[in-house]
Structure formats: structure tokens, C-alpha cells
Amino acid sequence: MRCVILASGSGTLTQALLDAFGDGRAGVEIVAVGSDKADAGVLDRARAAGRETFVVAPADHDSRGAWDAALTEAVRAHAPDWVVSAGFMRILGRTFIEAFPERILNTHPALLPAFPGAHGVRDALAHGVKVAGTTFHLVDAGVDTGPIIAQFPLDVHDDDDEDSLHERIRAVERSRLVELLGFLAHGALRVDGRRVTGWTPAPAGSSAPVPSTPQTPTAI
Questions:
Q1: CA–CA separation, 165 vs 130, rounded Å?
Q2: Distance CA 118, CA 90 (A)
Q3: Domain span at residue 47?
Q4: Given 108, 127, 137, 157, the catalytic residue
Q5: What gap in Å lies between CA 67 and CA 143, rounded to an integer?
Q6: How many structural domains comprise the chain?
Q7: Would residue 203 count as lying in a domain?
Q8: How does residue 22 score in pLDDT terms, banded at 50, 70 and 90?
Q9: Is pLDDT of 59 > 80?
């Protein structure tokens, strides 16, 4: 299963995937890592792991539509089975989404549909929630509105600030995204409107090892 990762920042989530699937275990291959920022730390991580990288910067294009088309072609060149948005801080346009229908994964650090957008953790804390978490979802044309694959709640501690809560959420995202991609290499999601079924995450606190024997992926 060929995966292209898109990220805008330092790339700790991407690093978890590079570490887990660096030897092709579970039939998952990270074929390329792309960013909207030439100086994004995630690109250094990908190069260190021997992965191809690319940059499609909005400032290099005359319009949002032109940028979206360029990003589409850059990703399509790697023939991915799945595109993983791992902290990619840009809204993907319709051209891109239509090129990879129901093949784009995103992780969002809040329990959607509450607190969408770029500041999910900050907004949740400002609202005084007692339970936060992360949502894995398919990407559609909205902002964090795609069909939900799974959600993982976390209790908010009395002394949590944005950094501490976000780091605990990221830790969950790193392990659970490895688990999801390992599943997708040999299993399938079923999408019926807004309902997504097919993946049963391992119980909280248990270890979900990556399968060691590659298997043939099943189309969604």
C-alpha cells in the first residue's frame, strides 16, 4: 500500500510512520512526503529516512486553484493508494479531493464535530471541556467535516494547558495512525454516507502490533 504524507510542521507524526513502516512491514510503503513549506522540519525527517520529498508552496502560484492543481499533480506522480494529512495546515481543494476520493486521511486534535479548524485544542480548553481527544476522518470539501473513521477521547487534567494536552493527543495520534495504516494494508473501510465501518481499533491501553507479513490490500 503506497502512502504519500502531507505535513506542514516538524513532523513528529510523520516520524512515527517512517519508524513503523521503514522496512515495508505490513505492506505499507511511505513513498513520499510533501509540504507547503520549503523549510518544514518534516522534510528533513523524510530525507533522513531516504524518502522522496516535494514542496508545493501557495506563494509560488497565482491562485488557490492553481496551487490545488499543482499539489494534485505532485501527489499523483507518486501513485498513492492513500494520502495522509499529518498536520498539513492547508485546506485541500475540490480538484485534489476528487483526484483521491475517499483516499485522504486526516487526524484532528478534537472530538469532531466540536472544535474544527486550526486551533482545536485551544478552543476546547477555552470552552472548558472535561474530555478532549482526536478524530480520524476522511477528508471532504469542508473544514474537518469528512466522515469519521474513529475517535479517541482523553480526560482533560485540571493543570492542562494547550501544550500539555496537545502533546498527549499527539501521542495517541502517533500510535493509532500506525495501527490504522497497518489495518488498511490488508483490510477495508466501508463508507455509507457519513458512516464509516470496518476498522475496530485495539482497546485503549493494549498493544496493537503492526502485522509483519504484507498482505494484499482490499479496495475501499
A1: 12
A2: 9
A3: 2-197
A4: 108
A5: 18
A6: 1
A7: no
A8: confident
A9: yes
How does pLDDT run across 133-163, given as a tens digit for each residue? 999 999 999 999 999 999 999 999 999 999 9
**91 close to 143: Cβ distance less than 8 angstroms:** yes
Contact 132, 196 (CB under 8 A): no
Report the predicted TM-score, pTM, of the whole model to 2 decimal places: 0.92
Q: What is the mean pLDDT of residues 14-35?
A: 92
- pLDDT confidence band for 25 (50 / 70 / 90): low
Q: Is 121 a member of any domain?
A: yes
Q: Is residue 44 part of a domain?
A: yes
The pairs formed by 92-101 with CB atoms below 8 angstroms and a separation of 24 or more are 92/68, 92/139, 93/64, 93/65, 93/67, 93/68, 93/141, 94/68, 94/141, 95/65, 95/68, 95/69, 96/68, 96/71, 96/72, 97/139, 97/140, 97/141, 99/72, 99/75, 100/75
Residue 123 is assigned to a structural domain of this protein: yes
The H-assigned helical ranges of the chain are 12-21, 41-48, 64-76, 94-99, 120-127, 162-184
Give the per-residue pLDDT at 192. Answer: 97
Q: Are 34 and 220 in contact (CB under 8 A)?
A: no
Which amino acid is located at 1 in the chain? M
Residue 93 has a CB neighbour count (10 Å cut-off) of: 16
Residues in the chain: 220
Question: What per-residue confidence (pLDDT) applies to 197?
Answer: 98
Question: In a 3-state reduction of DSSP, which class is residue 164?
Answer: helix
Is residue 108 part of the annotated active site? The answer reads yes
Can you tell me whether residue 92 is helix, strand or coil?
coil
Provide the CATH number for the domain around residue 41. 3.40.50.170
